[in-house]
Amino acid sequence: MSATQLLVTAGRRTKRRSDDRPRWTLKEVVFHVVVLAILAVILYPVAWMLLSTFKPSSQIVGNAQLLPREVTMDNYEKALSGIGGVSFWTFFQNSTILAVLSVIGVVLSSALAAYAFARISFPGRTVYFGIMIATLLLPFHVVIIPQYIMFNALGMVNTFTPLLLGKFLATEAFFVFLMVQFMRGLPRELDEAARIDGAGHYRTFWSIMLPLLKPALVTSAIFTFIWTWNDFFGPLLYLKDPDLYTLPIALRLFVDQSSAADYGGQMAMAVLALIPVFLFFLIFQRYLVDGVATQGLKG
Q: Is the pTM here over 0.85, yes or no?
């Protein structure tokens, strides 16, 4: 092949590669610009909060400027030193204990209750399941006073028990309903094969159903952890000792401790409080996505 033919062939290949490149239309460019603008608006408060942790408190209130005029690490020192004589790590430990135990309680109790509703036939199952679903329509504020009176009479106020007891008794109807619907999508032949092999309900649940429930379990764990970690009203209602306070209550103390609120310390503690939630979601979101991706493969 001559040099001229080689040049012609190379030119054709270059033209072919350039033709294969995706060409952006005006509509696509406008769409992406609009989406990026909306994303910037949504993320601006988060960026402002992060950068505000490096500003003096006097520059935070009434100042929408994103970048700090002067950088300081005093806010993180104040946040880590704690407030009211209680260190940050005490608040962090209390929130971690409540969140982890809540996840364990919700996952185990909801899975057991869901297995009973989805796989075991017993008198009144439909009625009980309907009553459980009806509790989703009951406002939490209706039962606040009766629950407080009951726990106070039992001497459980100022302990973690009122905040954890319901988690281990399958009172979270939303997660029970989620797992029931997931179990109903699993083939009944699995239960029949287990019974033929001599497995009872206990063995069937732990060896067959529980591993297949991983997507629903991970979903329940993620939401339970986030909701418990961010819960403000429950700990405020039942906890009286500052040594038992959680991070949401500690954040409020930065505003109420004096006439001049320490917004810098509050912003720094808010960022530190967000880190465990972000890491928890980052670790388990892969299982959540995998579970969603496999829902259409059942049958």
A: no
